[in-house]
Amino acid sequence: MSSHRRSRQKREPDPFDGILLVDKPTEWTSHDVVAKIRNHFKFNKVGHGGTLDPLATGLLVLLIGKGTKLSDRIMGGDKIYEGTIHLGVTTHSQDRDGEILSEKDASHITQDQVESAIENYRGDIEQIPPMVSAIKKDGVALYKLARKGIEIKREPRKIHVYSFEITHFENPFIKFRVKSTKGTYVRTLAHDLGNDLGVGASLYDLRRTGSGPLEISKAHTMEEILKCDRDSIEQKMILLSDMIA
């Protein structure tokens, strides 16, 4: 019998079912958070309701026990993000973590120009997903192909952007807030906006503050969560019965 099967058999039944709202720290992948929580509390089933890139922070919804059945409902909710766009810098991943492809002087770009360009990114729009993404082609994630220097044609996807507002402008950085439907690549919004302005751009930082009816104000840091045990963590969860209600 494998050690993996033995470890699974030693796990006690999940004491409760529901969701846990995590304020994901930067540099952690969504998978890192799921694995840490599962192993720390020895839960049987843990999933998440929508991936955040390693660069991004903020609301990550963990689904525990029978809470995993809410996956489609949670992932299907609208999302709210706050972040910063860096004008003049284009990267292969469309964010700060990527390899720099070009750098241009953006000092002449004004807030009025940005406001005008953003109008094209409100309402129903089509977006071509980035190569550095988890979308699969013939069963292979695109980011794995990108690592090999392979780029393939991606079909545009329809999304809806309810709002896309500048909260602060200090060239070359644009702070913004956006509310959109699921499946929106905010780093692609930054990339495409930069192209429209003629100088390129990439996402400098990103924080998810809302997912459907769930808000970052109700989330807990990893430090707070890992101080709990299997009994006390229940106090930080939204139980399945309450979520359905």
Provide a compact summary of the structure.
By secondary structure, this protein is α+β, with helices and mostly antiparallel strands.
CATH architecture of the largest domain: 2-Layer Sandwich
CATH class descriptor of the largest domain: Alpha Beta
Q: What name goes with the CATH superfamily of the largest domain? A: Pseudouridine synthase
Q: Tell me roughly what share of residues is in helical segments.
A: 10-25%
CATH-assigned fold name of the largest domain: Pseudouridine synthase
Radius of gyration: 20 Å
Q: Report the structural category.
A: alpha+beta
Domain module count: 2
Low-confidence stretches: 1-8
The biggest beta sheet, please? 11 strands, mixed
Query: Alpha-carbon distance between the termini?
Result: 42 Å
Estimated share of beta-strand residues: 25-35%
- Give the number of helices: 8
Q: So what's the overall shape? A: globular
Order of helices and strands: HEHEEHEEEHEEEHEEHEEEHEH
What is the strand tally?
Answer: 15
Mean pLDDT: 89
Structure report:
With 245 residues, the protein is an alpha+beta fold. The protein has two domains: 3-76 and 212-244, Alpha-Beta Plaits, CATH 3.30.70; 79-211, Pseudouridine synthase (2-Layer Sandwich), CATH 3.30.2350.10. It is 24% helix and 34% strand. Strands 1, 2, 3, 4, 7, 10, 11, 12, 13, 14 and 15 form an eleven-stranded mixed beta sheet that branches. Strands 5-6 form a two-stranded antiparallel ribbon. Strand 12 (201-211) and strand 13 (214-215) form a beta hairpin. The longest helix has 12 residues, at 30-41. Mean pLDDT is 89; it is low at 1-8.
